[in-house]
Amino acid sequence: QVTLWLKKLYxxxxxxxxxxxxxxxxxxxxIMECNEETDRDIMLLIEDMKDRTSKYEAEAEYWQDILGxxxxxxxxxxxxxxxxxxTDLVEGAMExxxxxxxxxxxxxxxxxxxxxxxxxxxxxEEMEHKLRILTRKLNSALMVEKQLEEDIEKLKKSQEEQxxxxxxxxxxxxxxxxxxxxxxxxICDAEDELVARxxxxxxxxxxxxxxxxxxxxxxxxxxxxxxxxxxxxxxxPSIPLAQVxxxxxxxxL
Length: 253
Known about the structure:
By secondary structure, this protein is mainly alpha-helical. It contains 6 helices and no strands. This is HAUS1 protein.
C-alpha cells in the first residue's frame, strides 16, 4: 500500500530512496492515511462547492427570468446609479452575511454587528485599562530596578574602597611587623655585642624592663607608707610640745 501510494504521489517521478524498515513503513503508512483522509475531505468540499454553485446559478437564472419577464429588467438595462446601488446592496448583504436582502435581515445583521462592535469596544477599553496598569507597574519595576542597580554600583564602589583600604592597612601592618622583627633582631644583636664587650647584664634591655617593673611595684608598696608618714609629719617633735598643743586645742574648744 505504501509503495503504490508513493508511486501515485510522485506520478512517474522516481521515488526518493529511503531505508525500508518497520518503523519507516509505519510512519509512511500513517502519513498516507492522513493524506488520503485529507484528500477525501477536499473532494467532499469541492463537491459541496460545485453543488452550491449549481444551486446559486440556477437561482440566479430564476431571478433573472423573473426580473426580465415581470419588470423588464435585464443586465445592462439599469441606469448607472441604480446598478451602483444594487451592487452596493449585494456587497453589503455579502459583507453582513445575510440570507436575503430584506430590511429585517439587514437590521438584524446591523444590530448584531453593532452589539459585536460594542463588545469589542468594551473589551478594548478593558485591555487598555489593563495595559495602563501594567505600564505603571512596569515603570515602577524599572525604577526599582534602576535604584537597585545604583545601590549595587554604590555598594561595589564602597567595597572596592574598603578593599583598597584593607590592602593598605594590611601592607602597613606587614611593614610594621617586619620592622618590629628587624628592630628586635638588631636589639638582640646589639645586646649580644655589648655583652661580648663586657657590658653588665643588668644594663640590658630585658634587665632594665624587669627593673622598671620591679620599681613600679615598689612605688605601689611605698604609696600607703607615704600617706601614713604624712600624717605623722604634722605632730610636734616632743611630748611636752604635744601636751601644749593639746591644751591649746582644748581651750579653743
